[in-house]
## 1
Amino acid sequence: MAVGIGTEQVTGGVPRPDAALPGMAPRRQRALRLPRSPKIIAGLAMLAFFVLLSVIGPLVAPYSPDQIFANSPVPLPPSAAHWLGTTNLQQDVFSQLLVGGGDMLLVAFIAGVIATALSVVMGVTAGYLGGLADDLLSMLANIFLVMPALPLLVILFGFLGKSGSNDLFLIGFIISVTGWAWGARVLRAQTLTLRNRDYIDSAKIIGERRSRIIFSEVLPNLTPIVASSFLFTVLYAVGTYTAMAFLGLVNPNWSWGGMLYYAQGANAELTGYWWWFIPPGLAVALLGTSLVLLNFGIDEFINPRLRAAGLSRRSARRQARALRSQQFALTPVVRTQQIHAEEGQA
Amino acid sequence: MLVISRRLFFYLVTAAVAISLDFLIPRLIPGNPVDAILSHMQGVTITPAIIHALDLQFGVNAHASLWGQYVHYWNDVVHGNLGVSSGNGFEPVSTVIRQALPYTLGLIGVATVISFVLGTVIGALVAWKRGSWLDSLLPVVTFFQAAPYFFLAFLAIDLFAITLGWFPSSRAANATDFPAFTWPYLTDLLDHAVLPALTIVVASAAGWIVGMRNVMLTTMDEDYVLIAAAKGLPKRRVIWYAARNAILPSVSGFALAIGFIVSGALLTEIVFSYPGLGSLLVQAVSDNDYPLMQGLFLIITFAVLAANLIADFVYVFLDPRTRQEA
């Protein structure tokens, strides 16, 4: 999926490193600033909904997802008995939808954790050590970035065959192998700018061990970028798992990609059985949207210049007026804070 | 030209890694791919020669050392010999791919260029009009960015092909048409390409829009933009000054994006039954046609690397600083 194109540029080339120093902000302020963004709130709410859905979905599903009902030859549209209609085999679409999120989220979470761990190790090592290690690790990351993941995954899952199609941990691991490089690249760039900061130098002069410098001085300041790269990988894994299920390379019973696999196999899009393919596709898209929104929120947190869209509607209007009157746009950082201050007084 | 030769070296290494992965994966994964292929064969007479060819390709019953097989494999790839496709009556993989490649190159190439241009222009405008109604484009764009390409393809078919009946829903041309450089055939080809291309553009433009907007917001703070505006230059000129500097990261971001876009676009082809590499991919999967999968992986990787090389040339052309280094 075409994710990360924009976010990479923002975090990858964090333009003013000073802006990316959340560690220096007082803890209280940081805690207040994050949830204020409507993007973060919306993203978190949607994500929470999907996590909840995947946990309780199988419990509340009205039928078993592969239970076969009346012997109608064609899929039936939504009705009181089947809220989202039935498939061509007369299975309940709503039940499949409720059951289909769990495995995917689990795989995405596993892939996200492994890939993030890999990218932190690779990125921070490359950025902090520099020299030959940096050259080699960067090259490795770039190779994995440039290589198209889908055909690579197709041969991997293809050769694994049946043995690989049900093992969620293995699937998550394979997806993470193709998904760690983006995070590593971004983390390396940020580590490079951190490495030459005064406080790192002073830590070195005091004689702190290298491991302590990395874990206590460098890593905490990378937290927002690690979080953003974790979310990106989860998003990537959701898309990839869905694509693999859509191709029938991982067990399609039952995931949202698998529902699309069966719908495509029965030409649901050509015969107008919209209730069969719209719900799972929409579910994947909305889950993805929640992750992208969260990522945007973190980007705005890292780079305050992007924050204009995160203003409340009233202050956004005020700001738009101000911008129009000036014909060109100045950075809103200072003005935003003033507006927040005014709102606080009012 | 130092930049270009360095990039060229990087792409050569990447191609070598891709070829090595292609060689290693079947040998590292447990199980016998030759048996798996043969168990899927029906209605084809399997001669000892075919079994021997497959054995050689996957290193089954091989008498040569792993290194010897590896050298042999390189020799084959360099000579364009990618093995035989078990799902296509044991035709050479390269022949099978060659028939599908033009469709994919045409469709994805054109759609990617359109989406890049469109996304960059819209992104620059959204950034310039910050705080206006254009900002409300972003949530919409976010949705399209997060939706799987093939789901958008489902929607496009259902809406434009079935409900409205504006465009054909599948294949690259009418079955009755004979491929030729004639006007009716070309318009037919175009007619069939509209929906798949539209899907790819809609799905991939989102990334360019967001990327361009974010860089543009930063660029607009530069002093030269302020000066340009203060001098009273027409607004269009000022936007142009900012945009042409903001576009550089977008061009270099192309490298990271093209792999994603190609992956998504291949899945789009499947939904449209477009006779390109995507359809071959799904066919290879359902036939357990491992040699075809491997060949596709190599060809798609090479195509993506070539696209990146072109993007690098464009970058060097656009940014004089890269030329100075040499």
## 2
Amino acid sequence: MELPANARRAEDLAIADQCRLNVLWLNGCACCQRVLEIEVADLSLGAALQSLYGRVERCGGLNTDEGSSPFAGASFDLVTLYGRTPERGELTAMRRLLRPGGAAVFAAQNRWWYGRRRTASRAASTMSLRDAGRILDAGFSDVRTYWVEPSLAIPRNLIPATADRVRDFEELQAQDSERSPNRSLALAAGIRWALYPAVLFVATV
Amino acid sequence: MQNDTLLSGIDAQLGGGPRRWSDVVVVRNVGPLTTAVPLEGDVISNRGFNALLCSAGGGQKHFLKLRPIHHRLFDREATLTALLSSREGTRSLVPASRTFTVGPARILAQEFVAGRSLDLLVRTRHREGWQQPAAQVLRAAAPLWEGITEVVAAAGFGLSPGLSDTASLLADLDLLASQRVDAGVIRLLRARLESAHLPSVPQHGDFWPRNVLVTGNGWRVLDFECCGDVTLPLYDILHFLRGCAESAGGDQIRSSEPWLRAIGGSGALLQEFRLIAGPLKEEVVEAALVAYLVDFAARLHRRGIAPERINGRLRELEALPATLDGGAVRALMS
């Protein structure tokens, strides 16, 4: 797993995993019997998933051809893909693997994150709120959308992506004095969404 | 799903439901709520997360602290906050709160008070004159320390009356000696701590400008997780005043002398300082300053804070004998 930008010690990795554990728990993903992680090298949920569920199955990607998939349909309670955009066929395959009541968790960098250059290679590893529509189109019945900061590796703040809650969050942040110049600049420019570096979706069947 | 259990459990306790997932904003996610992950010492002082909880209809908001069932600091904060909010003199200083359990989480729900931290106000509006708002806070918060002494004793959190634990301070000093603090300074500070008998006085433990909220209806003091854990006299007031000076200055402090002089330079602040210091003798106040700086630097070190962030604290300690010899504390007490 790649170290978070501000990581110095092994403890930082432990903290990152523990933060992500809470995110899964908060989203009702704590009582799953069978879990599949589609692994992305940089941001594998690794130890966090292992700690919460005991046993986790892993794969590098999903075969979109139903006939040659090693996994039976409707056999998982939770499928996670943390760190890159799911392809169109992959979304459908994830939906197919989930039992009724199951959930899929997707998370990736915000495509429009302030200060990041947009390149063709980055576009493949980023997501934005607009991807919620793609997820619903794949047959999921509901999608919860969060902004995450400061990073997917250490999700300290989890902000439901609704205008009211973003305002609530910013009111709380204003009580704190550690405000970056980027924040003031983005707020002044009216591009609030550019402040939040990552998005997280919890899609239910 | 468990999320529904969490929200319905909160709704049952607080009313104002039914809430949806989008009514919960997680604002400080730290350690595991669901499973025990062994991390020793002070590496993580908090486990779980804090959240802003909104009512379904957009009405009353709560600030929640969700912690694992057996969290070491949770019961202390929940109990002491409840006791302080039930006392006449301290009721207006702490947010009204209640405690309950849902699934694997112990939850402290406090009324959400809109406001700005004193730290932010000092940085943005009072850089030149932080002494005035600091004096106002100390005047308003004066009943707090009497209240803390009373409720810590009532709650029975193992406070032993008498003298503060000099042995643990000396151990802290040894810890700092290993961080390249001048050996001669360590000897001088050790002598100060050994000769002065510090009384044991329970403190808030984290009373600094960021934990003081300026609201439209006075001041609120937040974060009682360490309340009563620290029993060094004047710890809170020294931590608070040093914090104000640091916020106003914007730079790392490398000597105590300027901020001690700044206290003496403001009549109102000096009056509040003397009222809180009360009958303590000058040498006890000097030892209390040594104890505060030693304890706090050692605490940061034990928490695994990066050495460069503790460096300023260590340089301040090294300058302390000269500061004391220069009469900075004497000027406050005479």
